[in-house]
Amino acid sequence: MQLKAVKTNMMTHSRGIVFVVSGPSGCGKSTVLHEVFKKRDNLYFSVSATTRLPRPGECDGKDYFFMSREQFQAMCNNGQLLEHAEYAGNFYGTPRGPVEEKLLSGFDVIMDIDVQGARQVKEKMPEAVLIFVAPPSMEELEVRLRGRSTESEEKVLRRLEAAKVELNMSTMYDKVIINDEVSKAADELLDIMDNSHRLNDQL
Ligand code: 5GP
Fold it and tell me: Where are the domains of the chain?
């Protein structure tokens, strides 16, 4: 199945497209992306490296590569990260190798990364499509962050502060999706992806 999808993809364009998806922690990005992945099979989720501790239910190698600060620093020093940033006291970065490999084999790549990372990716890969997922309101974001109840009060406040900064930077993105309903937001993202391919095919 996957092989066929790659072949179909390669017939129209040799390289996949990078879609950078950002949005404040708690905006529901992961749920939206989950819906998108159900509907596409020629799509690779870029698994980030992080120094943050796993949340209950998170899997090493699937959700993130969880590592120590020393391990993260070593990856950074060895040029293994396409971009990296500090977010709410933890380090996050995108491993370069898998992204390049997947793009070459015709897969699209989705990166769920913050605004600092998005800017670095756009500098290195100007053809990347930047999509910002916004919560319906700050009040709703706070409700969602507290509802998750995996974070301490201090961490919730840090993430709310970070969200304000991120929302102000949404203007640098190619597209903004308001996540007031997951299936609608997922369909919007799928439309953006299809349109990006159509535009590429016309070039
Ligand atoms: P969380 O800790 O809630 O999983 O993620 C916190 C923030 O870090 C989110 O905005 C997420 O998009 C961002 N993030 C996750 N992975 C990366 C990465 O590899 N690079 C950058 N720059 N940000 C990331």
Answer: 18-202
CA of 153 to the centre of ligand 1 (A): 19
User: DSSP state, 171?
Assistant: G
Contact 47/62 with Cβ under 8 angstroms? yes
Q: Sorting pLDDT into bands at 50, 70 and 90, what band is 24?
A: very high
Model's pTM, two decimal places?
0.89
Summarize pLDDT for 61-99 with one digit per residue, the tens: 999 999 999 999 999 999 999 999 998 899 999 999 999
Widest CA span in the chain: 51
Tell me which of 32, 92, 170 to substitute to probe ligand 1's pocket, judged by most ligand atoms within 8 Å of the beta carbon.
92
CATH number for the domain formed by residue range(s) 18-202: 3.40.50.300
Q: Residue 180: enclosing H or E segment and its boundaries?
A: none
179, 185 in Cβ contact below 8 A?
A: yes
Measured distance CA(110)–CA(90) in Å, rounded: 21
